[in-house]
Amino acid sequence: MKYLPLILCLLCAVDAKAQASPSALVTTPYRYCALVVDDRLFSVPDRVQLDYGQSAPGAVADPEMAEMAKSIRASHSIIDVLNYLGRHGWELFNVTTVQTQGRRSSLDNATSYVDSETRYLLRRRTP
């Protein structure tokens, strides 16, 4: 008789689950794009580009993103571009600066410059 509560507790514990099943944990998928800004010169045309995977092998054409990339390419203000993308549902996720190349000054050999680009990673929830 004194083992009956112990046996009942053990039988109930076998059926209990401590964590939710993986199917219950549904994550909302995101779509990502990168705004790539060439930091060398501020007035160079095409210094701002939108990378949404269009050059990847097997990429599917996306007319909405192509139109956004065309509008962005004409802009000279990064803040304007970020606000434009924000109005279209994109949120800034990460910013990183990447060194693209180093070069020497044309005036003397002692001075060197580092060319870089800033990459703004953005994401948007997929419907």
From TrEMBL:
UniProt KW Signal keyword: yes
Protein name per Swiss-Prot or TrEMBL: DUF4136 domain-containing protein
Organism: Hymenobacter ginkgonis
Signal peptide segment: 1-20
Keywords: Signal
Domain of life: Bacteria
Keyword Signal attached: yes
Highest classification ranks of the organism: Bacteria, Pseudomonadati, Bacteroidota, Cytophagia, Cytophagales
